[in-house]
Amino acid sequence: MARGNQSLESEFVLLGLTHSQNLQVLLFIIFFLLYMLIVSGNTVVMFLIITDQNLHSPMYFFLANLSFVDMWLSSATTPKMITDFLQEKKVISFAGCMCQVFFDHCVGAVEMVLLVVMAYDRYVAICKPLHYFTIMNLRRCTGLVLTSWAIAFVHAMSQLLAVVRLPLCGHLEIDSFFCDIPLIIKLACMDYHDLDIYMNADCGVVVVTCFILLLISYTNILVTVRQSSKAGASKALSTCTAHITVVMIFFVPCIFIYVWPLNITWMDKFLAVFYTVFAPLLNPAIYTLRNKEMKNALKKLKNYLMNHKGNT
């Protein structure tokens, strides 16, 4: 197919996760429930942080932003996947496909940079506690979040501009549940080896840089923790363990999809589901279940709702 109006009006066929009709009905129920949990869980986290005065600190400011990003990360692909389970023919327009490419990479990059910002916040809190509120003031926190979005926008645009003008040909079938750049590149009527390397390098700059910065931050934190009091060290380790868990859940799948691809179809699908569905689902659970302040805020909300229900 020649690139031009024909491509703009074309549709991509998504092969999805499975061809079994019975299994698709089961997956529809499972992923619909998971998506509802993602939206409700992250909404609760944001609501608690906004309404509870005890959670008005830089760490929770970043956590609220992380929950907001998680909702959009899942929403970029999951609703389409869920509705496709009930469709005999799973198709997506060229414009819709490009939108998925942009939002998947933009929101994904925001999360990566935001995790680095959260690690920096913990580094300042643990390694420079006396200067914490001076360094992490509202202006700087807001600036760091806006910087995360700016970096992500540039990254996503560089990815989008590289694929939107590709000459596409043959059957436009994508063996996944959403439009992903490595799979779109394979549909190009050209030698895509150099473009593949560019995409891996572009993603690698974001993923690997963020991952290295995270390793440096947490290494410095752990070194400092070893020299602090036992009580302070225990609390710091608990917080850092939660952060590191989130980092591994999100970064490992992204590394094996975009930086060091395995090129194993079923594995790529599993990893894609993991970082678009399970990571946004697990993040609020990890932070609320392992965080004393969040658990206290959740208990207060529960008690308020119970009392309100009793009064009515």
List the helices and strands and how they pair.
Blueprint: H1 5-8, E1 11-14, H2 21-51, H3 58-75, H4 78-84, E2 91-93, H5 94-127, H6 132-135, H7 138-164, E3 173-174, H8 181-185, H9 193-226, H10 230-259, H11 265-289, H12 292-311
Parallel strand pairs: 1-3
Antiparallel strand pairs: 1-2
Helix pairs in contact: 2-3, 2-4, 2-11, 3-5, 3-11, 5-7, 5-9, 5-10, 7-9, 9-10, 10-11
User: On the 0-100 scale, what is the average pLDDT?
Assistant: 85
What strand order characterises the main sheet?
2-1-3
Query: Number of domains in the coordinates?
Result: 1
Oligomer: single chain
Fraction of residues in helices? over 70%
- What gross morphology would you assign? globular
What is the distance, rounded to the nearest whole angstrom, between the alpha carbons of the first and last residues? Answer: 64 Å
Beta-strand portion reads under 5%
- Poorly predicted runs: 1-6
Number of helices: 12
Strand elements, count: 3
CATH class: Mainly Alpha
Work out the radius of gyration.
21 Å
Let me know the CATH homologous superfamily: Rhodopsin 7-helix transmembrane proteins
Reported by name, the CATH topology is Rhopdopsin 7-helix transmembrane proteins
Biggest sheet record: 3 strands, mixed
At CATH level 2, the architecture is Up-down Bundle
Structural class: mainly alpha
Reading the helices and strands in chain order gives HEHHHEHHHEHHHHH
